Amino acid sequence: MVIAAITSCTNASNPSVMVAAGLLARKAIELGLGGTELFDFQDVSSKPKEIEVTATKDDGSKLGFQVSVRIDTPKEWDYFAHGGILHYVLRRLASE
User: Looking at the whole model, is its pTM more than 0.70?
Assistant: First the structure.
C-alpha cells in the first residue's frame, strides 16, 4: 500500500478509492516521484499518525517527506501486524 501508501489501485468498483488513488498519483508527481524510487519508512509499531519517508532515486539522490499513516482501526492494525489480511485469515484458520 503507499508505499505504505503511495499505491496503485485496481478497485474500479469504488469511485472514492479511484479518486483517492488519483490524488495520490498527483501528489507523487508534484513531489517529483517517477515510480522507480526505493522507499524507506520509519517504524510504525508505535502506531504513529505520521511518519517520515525517504525516497531514493535511481541517481542516488534522496527526497524526504511526511505521510499520514492510514491504519485507522484496531482490526486494520491486526492485519498489518500479520503482514496483510491474507496472512491474518490463514493464521486464524490454521489455529481453529
Answer: no
